[in-house]
Amino acid sequence: xxxxxxxxxxxxxxxxxxxxxxxxxxxxxxxxxxxxxxxxxxxxxxxxxxxxxxxxxxxxxxxxxxxxxxxxxxxxxxxxxxxxxxxxxxxxxxxxxxxxxxxxxxxxxxxxxxxxxxxxxxxxxx
Length: 126
Hints:
Structural class: mainly beta
């Protein structure tokens, strides 16, 4: 499977912004559907947003209008721009990948993904 490394997490005040990156060590990154998940303290891992290799996107209601997922296939990198951050956004954020040759498909459940990063901590203070 493709190896994934998240970066960009940190401590930010409520209302602030943060940009996460997920670097993929795979030249065929263009053929992977990608997703961002998060796991708040004491909670189960949940989907934040997903993107197909062709750019179709899905957002959880809790982040819609505040977060933006994007990808740069030339750099084999996935991004998550997070604006208007809230304390409830505090979590470990993970990127995930699944190879697919259908450019329109994305996955909003965890089980289809077969590659995961180690996670990056995002803490939003109030």
